[in-house]
Amino acid sequence: MSAEVLAEEFEVLESIYPAELTKLSERVIRIVIEPDDPVGGVESLTLALNVEYTDGYPDVLPNFSLEATEGELDENEINHLHDELQKVGEENLGMAMTFTLVSHLRERLSGLLREREEKKRQEEAEKERRALEAEEAKTRGTPVTVETFKSWKARFDKELAANRAREEEEKLKGMSPKEREEYKKMQSRLTGRQLFERDKTLGTQDESLNEEDAVSVDISQYDRTTNVEEEDDEDRVTFSDSD
């Protein structure tokens, strides 16, 4: 590679990247690379591409290395970008390739930022979904089954009985001995419902009593038409021609 060819490429690169390019030696340059399409909402990312031109350049690949100057790149990402540069360089052997390498890196940095933005969006959506599910679980409560209802009913009845016992005790405390005795007698009397639940034949017994006291009536004996005619005959006045 002639010094004139390399000097010509340096001149072109300096005109394109006046602030980004730094010439470290006669054969080594450093170019700071930013994404060609910045993405908001994620950490910015900037790389430095170090290029060392070999004697056989451009028919032989230059030596290059990458380092993050702003933001973070893990080792796998850097290795992946390096492999991509290697492939792009091989496709452009025989011609000045530095500009092509830089352009590829700018595009890939934009792609990385978009991937990070999408990952962040998905993580936020997942976080929101979990928070919503947790909130719905609070308001939804426990699904009711036969077993859970029986368990709840047993606890409810037990609590109800305990509350009634306390109320009863408080009520008795405020009574005199005589009032207490009368109150207990009243409480020992069975209600109509309790009597029926204890002996369910009470209802049928009442029906049987009604049947025994019933009297058969022949309605034909109460023919209203016949009675009216008889009454008319009794009220009729007969006149005679004789004096």
Helix content: 55-70%
Shape annotation: rod-shaped
Quick one: biggest sheet?
Answer: 4 strands, antiparallel
What structural class is derived from the secondary structure elements?
A: alpha+beta
Number of strands: 4
Total count of helical runs of at least 4 residues: 8
Q: In a nutshell, what does this entry contain?
A:
Helix content is 60%, strand content 10%.
Features:
rod-shaped; alpha+beta; 243 residues
Can you offer a commentary on this structure?
There is one protein chain. α2 (75-91) runs antiparallel to α3. The chain has a four-stranded antiparallel β-sheet, covered by helices on one side. The protein is rod-shaped, with a radius of gyration of 54 Å. It contains eight helices and four strands, in the order αββββααααααα. The termini are far apart. It is 60% helix and 10% strand. It is an alpha+beta fold.
Write the layout of secondary structure elements.
Layout: H1 3-16, E1 21-23, E2 28-33, E3 46-52, E4 63-70, H2 75-91, H3 98-140, H4 146-173, H5 177-188, H6 192-198, H7 202-213, H8 224-235
Antiparallel strand pairs: 1-2, 2-3, 3-4
